[in-house]
Design goal:
single chain; 725 residues; eight-stranded mixed beta sheet; 56 strands; elongated
Amino acid sequence: WEGFFVYDGIEYTIDPSVPARYNDDGVQVSDTRRITSLTCNGVPVTDDQIFVLVSRHITGDIDPIHKSDVFNKQVLVSKTDHISTMMEDYINHQTVDGKLHLNTDNSWKVNFPKGDNYLIVSSSQASDIAKTKGWYRGETPASDGYSYYKASFDPDSYKDTSGPLVVAAPLVTDTTGDPVKIRVEASDVSGIRSVSYMNGIVDVDSYVWNYSASPVNDGTFTVSTNGRYTVRAVDTLGNATVTYVNVDNIDTSVSFTPKLDKLTNRTVTLTGKASPNASVHLDVSGASYDMKADGNGDFSTRITPPKAGDIAEIYQVDSIGRRSATGEIEVTRTGADTPAVYQIANTSSTISGMFGDDSLCRVVAIKGKTAYVPKDTVDIFKQSKAYKKSYTIKKCSYSRTGDAFKLNTSSIPLTGDNYTIYGIDWIGRLSTKVSMTTVEAAPNQPKLMSVVSEEGVVYGKIPEPTSDSYVITVTDQNGRTFSGTAPADGCFGIVTGNLGDNNKISVTATDVKDGALRVSAPRTTTAKTYLSFVDSFSGGTDFDKITDEDTQVTGEVFDGNSSTEARMLLSGKSIRFNEIGSGATLGDDGSFSYGLEKPLKYGTKIGVVVRNADHSMAYVDYTKVVEALPKKPTVTNEKITDKTSVIRVIGNRNATCVLKSGKTVIKKKSVAFHENEGYIYKFKLPEALRRSGKICKVYLENTSGESDSVYFTVKGEKKAKKAEE
């Protein structure tokens, strides 16, 4: 065994014959227990007991159990000077008359199997001491100043013949004019019978302990003069141990410097110890604080978290007017410094303020379920305690000029929106939180409904309005402006005319408060043709079929009535239903109609946009004008014989004329248009059709279908003449 810890203050027995419970990585590999006994002052340790571990260091390499879930509730309470400083102080207090006074407490033992031999590797200079031990069975010198000591142990010979472990130390080591409290800890496997103390150096077996000693109650005693004090602990078997405490910091002419429990850059409640009823003053990071200690010397106050690395200065004036020396305490870092955030207004997307921490630190903000995080800090933020998987993270631009920072969220807040803001350092540690509420500097940024360019109206609303009226201004990318008003409810519809597709517009709201003109942050969007919204909002309007010969557009708006806000969009015009003079009507049953001055061309698109009561988009649908079905054509030839070479046909539409007989199909486009007759089509009959008795049909066709057909039969020339006679 090597590189193991020895713990004082508890007693334990190790059985080396039992297989290891953990491997080198701290992973439990068996249900065995090498620690066969674990007590505190002879009483078995229970699961609900809490221990404070004082150790030079705890690392996973030396103490693998520290890495496992066994001690997952360990908390680092505090840390202090380097081990060399602590050892020097300890040796000074344990040195009496030039000799270092040490004692062993035999708080732990190894339960070696009886009869087994072992080798102990230790310094060759320990030979004389080893020979006095009951386990010594011989020695073999080795190199480099070491020796192998042969050992054999008899577990039945274990007896508690040593005194308790006793540790005593003053709780105040700085110069003080007040009495000093001494803290005493004593432990022994057989339990503690008594702990007492005396002034001066007193031998452990001196009879005066029976007459002049003072008891140590609740682990402390208080002294009011400098000097050496002896503390004696006796276990239940009568074994005794003494230790010494040197008190040399009492000076009745001065007051001691107050002590802080802790001071970090995340401290918001400052606590500490001073003289009873003393007045305490603290200066740190440009701020000053005055506090009053209570009758026990405890003081506390709320502070603004100081900056890491700053030096705090503290002193007290005690109840009899003595001023202590000024103490200096460095502010330790436990996270990022706390940023000073400027007022957040409802007119800007930028969060700004002062943040003088390291250049690697950043500022993050959280509003509702959205976290605004600098682009280069997203991964670090996800490691912080502020991160939640339910958050939507918005990557933001972040800049710092000196100590001034700017976090551009690209999102204009509303009056009353709440932010939680943190500084965050390079490993994800947070500052204390800063809570900010957005203030009203102008009307809230307008909210816009979907803008349809052909509709000719920009609809929107001012969220949470606070004024009786507003002026709404719409500015397009060509510099044109359109204005209107919004009442106290903040809803508006600004008439603009056809804005054109892909026209970028900006909308602001203006009001007057306390005689001052206030302009909101602009809301920008792009006006789109109604066809861009069909995929998302179609299905609310049913059009009746309309042909290029009809003069009426009809259909039905589902769930619509005479008060529904709806418009027909036709040839760049926006026609509002039921508006006086529009010619478009929408009934309570949802049916609508619109009379046309003349038929529309084939392929013309007709759109209908339906809005909800708040003018948000409900439905966008459209239809196309189709071709009317052609009428039955007329064959103008007086007779068709086997000598006829050309057939002339007249139709009412410019369509495709079809001549068909059996498998022979001939199609022709019109060759002319006669105002009184119509469209003229001509066919050159092929030889195969110029046969007596051949039956042919002629009809017109277009995208809507086929007309009725006209039939004729080819006659022979002689038969035709005879028929004429």
